Amino acid sequence: MPNRALPLATKIFEGFLTYIESFNTYTRLAPLYFAQRNWQATQLNHRQRLRLYKDLLFQLAKVFQEILGSDSANREIWKLIRSAYQQMISQRPDVELAETFFNSVFRKTFPNNPLDEELMYVMEGYNACEIRENSDLLLTYPASMGLENIIRQILEDFDFGVQFMDKEQDVQFLVNGVKEVILTRYQVEVGTKTQLLKPVFYRNKAAYLIGRTYVGKKWMPFIIPILNGPKGIYVDTLIFDPNLMSHLFSFTRSYFMVEAEVPSQIVGFLSSVIPHKKIHELYNAIGFNKHGKTIFYRDFLHHLQNSTDQFVIAPGIKGMVMTVFTLPSLNIVFKLIKDHFEPPKNMTRQEVREKYKLVSLHDRVGRMADTHEFEHFRIPLDRVSPELMKELKNTANSLLRIENNQLIIKHLYTERKMIPLNIFLETCSTKDGEKAVEDYGRAILQLAQANIFPGDMMTKNFGLTRQKRVIFYDYDEIEFLEDMNFREKPKPETYEQIYASEPWYEIRKNDVFPEDFKRWMIGRADLKPHFLAYHKDLFDPAYWKGLQQRIQNGELIHAIPYPEEIRFRPGEPD
After folding, report:
1. Partner of 5 for a Cys bridge, out of 70, 80, 218, 301, CB 3.0 to 4.6 A?
2. Which residues 6+ apart lie within 8 Å of 117 measured at CB?
3. Structural domain boundaries of the chain?
4. Whole-number mean pLDDT of the chain?
5. Region 205-220: what's the mean pLDDT?
6. How far is 108 from 567, CA to CA, in rounded Å?
């Protein structure tokens, strides 16, 4: 049996090496496409990297099932495989990712997807995410160099292979930004220094430099976004605001392309820059979302051990496609696809899963929530409220199994908990409501610019984040914008047409009449006029057709992830 285990462990290890090498190959293409302004290749490269893990995993799991056959559930073989694999990965700088890869193969191969601490890496994990001062990943600039010299050296050290549009102006913009934000509050001392991560973070049309300055006996983090416009590269702004930095790494954003030879060290530095972000969120942000899922699950298990509240039905209007529940003490919701959908919903469970997959591979432009997909998710039976159990049995009974005092859910999605927009609008002040409905419209338009038409745009399908940003989270009716047909409603000309109880004109599947949005989008009397005036474009078919044309022409419409007013050159084309 030991002789049999070693080649199987080697197959998993070789599969992991293939994954990492391919992941890095895609990642290293990002700066090339940025320099070339090849935005279509940038998008394709991003999607290919996202597909990589599952594609390799399914191939490897199929091989394992064929080799092991009836021994797929043999615990002794798996113990030996794990032991041999552990020796292969123990000295790797990315050992935590290798552990997660093993878990994935095991769960896809072993019958009924058990959670087994003897056979898997359940709670061990590699958690050395503290950045080392002498790390090769850092560039350090002592304050003795002088502020302007530091800025010039930073722009010299990060060579994008493209000429600057106006390097001298960029230097002065950055110098003035540091003076306004840091030097008006803190004095430069002997120990003052600035550090930047050597790896550059690429996403869509932007490159980001991540750094921190030690001043006033604490680290002051900052981010420098760089764009590559028609006239060359330029520094777009200097970000010190922790909320804006957090938003750049939001669960509503696509993953960065960044070289991470030692992922835990990159995460460690990011954690010092954005301290309230959870470790699993940071792994997600740099593209290792499968390991982010592993850490999320470890956090979930730890939370269960240290809490006593029960899982309950999530507040809000019940969905027609999803059953949603939550644990009040945890900032997460759990979503199950129902067994049956009431009219007018006429899709299948698989079609809903395809919509969620589409979102996982698409640019979320800060407006769609990231999800983790789980199979055979386990919850202690005594933590499930009676009301929730009844709801689950009534709506998604085919996904449930009870075993050893645990509720096992065959398939679900986890998502960040948000305040449903319709609930927020019921009680908020007029001022807060105006801001929310403004952002609601912006969310729809920014999704459209990313070639996403939300379909069902009722406020119950949107939520507010901690920072009161409006996010779309109901994906069962989304379509690509370019597939929709935006029309003006025909004008009735006869008595029969004017008083017809049903539309007298033909309506095809993907026809959309934007003027109809006015009737149902916002109901509150004190908010509706403001919303209609603020977002006139929403109701104009010509505007939607214009967006379609830009997308069909191959344009990548860049959603700048920070306010236009903080840009050094507002309105500068990217």
Report:
1. 80
2. 123
3. 2-109, 138-302, 308-417, 420-553
4. 93
5. 94
6. 47
Contact 551, 233 (CB under 8 A): no
Rg (CA), the chain: 26
Beta-bridge mates of residue 138: 197
Within 13 Å of residue 34, how many CA atoms lie on the same side as its CB? Answer: 30
Residues 334-370 have pLDDT tens digits of 999 999 998 888 889 999 999 999 999 888 889 999 9
Provide the H-helix boundaries in 421-488.
421-427, 430-449
Q: Map residue 56 onto helix, strand or coil.
A: helix
Of 372, 386, 384, whose CA–CA distance to 408 is shortest?
A: 384
| Band of residue 104 on the pLDDT scale cut at 50, 70, 90 | very high
Could you give the CA distance from residue 517 to residue 29 in angstroms, rounded to a whole number? 42
pLDDT tens digit sequence for 361-415: 888 889 999 999 999 999 999 999 999 999 999 999 999 999 999 999 999 999 9
Instruction: Specify the higher pLDDT residue, 456 or 81.
Output: 81
How many residues comprise the chain?
A: 574
DSSP secondary-structure letter at 275? T
The pLDDT-based confidence of 30 (bands split at 50, 70, 90) is very high
Stated pTM of the model: 0.93
Cβ atoms of 466 and 473 within 8 Å: the answer is no
Active site residues: 370
Q: 3-class SS at 383?
A: helix
Q: Which two tokens stand for residue 324?
A: 């949603």
Crossing angle of helices 541-552/430-449, nearest 10°? Answer: 40
d(CA 43, CA 45): 5
Listed in sequence order, the residues at least 6 apart from 107 whose beta carbon sits closer than 8 Å to its beta carbon are 113, 120, 375
Contact 324, 473 (CB under 8 A): no
Q: Which residues contact 535 (CB under 8 A, 6 or more apart)?
A: 438, 441, 445
Burial 121-149 (b: 16+ CB within 10 A, else e): bbeebbeebebeeebebbbebebeeebee
Q: Among all chains, which residue has been given the structure tokens 């047909």?
A: 485
CB 316 within 8 A of CB 283: no
Strand pairing class (485-486; 511-512):
parallel
Neighbouring residues of 547: CB distance < 8 A, sequence distance ≥ 6: 448, 449, 481, 557
Condensed to tens digits (0 to 9), the pLDDT of residues 477-495 reads 999 999 999 999 888 888 8
H/E segment holding residue 203: strand 201-203
Q: What is the DSSP string of 486-506?
A: E-PPPPP-SHHHHT-SS-SS-
pLDDT exceeds cutoff 90 at 9:
yes
Whether the ω angle into residue 343 lies within 30 degrees of 0, i.e. cis, is no
CA distance 574 to 572: 6
Instruction: Give the residue ranges of DSSP H helices in 306-334.
Output: none
Q: Which two tokens stand for residue 563?
A: 């306010």
**3-class secondary structure, 412:** strand
pLDDT band at residue 128 under the 50/70/90 scheme:
low
Residue 143 has pLDDT above 60, yes or no: yes
